[in-house]
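Hi all, long-time lurker, first post. I run a small reading group and we've been trying to get comfortable going from sequence to structure in the token notation. Rather than ask abstract questions, I figured I'd post a concrete chain and ask someone more experienced to write out its structure so we can walk through it together at our next meeting. Sequence below, copied exactly:
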Amino acid sequence: MTRIVAGTAGGRRLKVPPKGTRPTSERVREALFSSLESLVDLDGAQVLDLYAGSGALGFEALSRGAAHATFVESDKRAADVLKGNAKELGFAHTTIVNRAAEAFVLGEGEKFDVVFADPPYAVGDDELAKVLRGIVPRLTADAVLIVERASRSGEPAWPEEVESLRAKRYGDTAVYWAQVRAGG
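-- Answer (accepted) --
Happy to help. Here is the structure in token form:
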């Protein structure tokens, strides 16, 4: 079972797609958001949840005060689950995009304060690096990027416009943080 950890929807359950996703555990989300809130004010933030799956990261951000979350998920069944979760939780300020992350980042549109990228473990380093480079033009001046991967995969290749902040392991999972460079 996956549920929202804290905020206005704290304790509420999320439906999870039947297969092909790996929701971020409550323990990892709790630690991740504790650290995130020390870096950025989520109140009013524009959030992007790439490789969204059940949407646990984006919905957690909305529950904690983000103004809007855009969820990008390539699997149609998972995108349908995302729509159902948004409706069930009563979050109207969501956009659900049924596209591959690689295609989404090539487009133009709103800018984001926080970007979560939790790709399937099978996504390779080059593909992830391309997605991270592609999202740079849509980041606000102080944007934070958070990438969750298998610990064995290592830190992603960050674009030159962002700087690595920290990395934390949680068993087989590792979370990597970066922020837009000052003047970047």
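A couple of things your group might point at:
Residues 70 and 95 are 5 Å apart (CA to CA).
Strands lie at 2-3, 13-14, 46-50, 68-72, 94-97, 112-117, 139-150, 162-170, 173-180.
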